[in-house]
Amino acid sequence: MDNFNSLLDEMHRQVQQFNQNNKILKENWQDKQSDHFAGTCITVTNSNCMEFMQTVEQLGSGVNSFLEQLKSMAEELSKVRPG
């Protein structure tokens, strides 16, 4: 899971860089096309990335919770020895 979390952190950094670069682009390219591009491409891409990362984080939390439950169950089973 550590590798998973580091990949997700890297994706967060990339989205932040994406937003920063697009802010610079928009500041230097101010016309109707830039507004259209921002609305149809940049905003949509950013929203999709954010939604994806949020979903993955929630799923990751669920997986971690499930793993903890499995560990607890394994400990309980190891206490019960046939005999």
Written account of the structure:
By secondary structure, this protein is mainly α. It has helices spanning 2-28, 32-79. Helix 1 packs antiparallel against helix 2. The two termini are 37 Å apart.
Large-scale geometry: rod-shaped
Number of helical runs? 2
Structural class: mainly alpha
Q: What's the story with the biggest beta sheet?
A: none
Intertermini distance: 37 Å
User: Over the alpha carbons, how many angstroms does the gyration radius reach?
Assistant: 22 Å
Strand content: under 5%
The beta-strand count equals: 0
Helix-strand pattern: HH
Low confidence ranges: none
Helix content: over 70%
Mean pLDDT, nearest integer?
89
Properties at a glance:
single chain, 83 residues, mainly alpha, 90% helix, rod-shaped
Concise summary:
The chain has two helices and no strands.
Outline the secondary-structure elements.
Layout: H1 2-28, H2 32-79
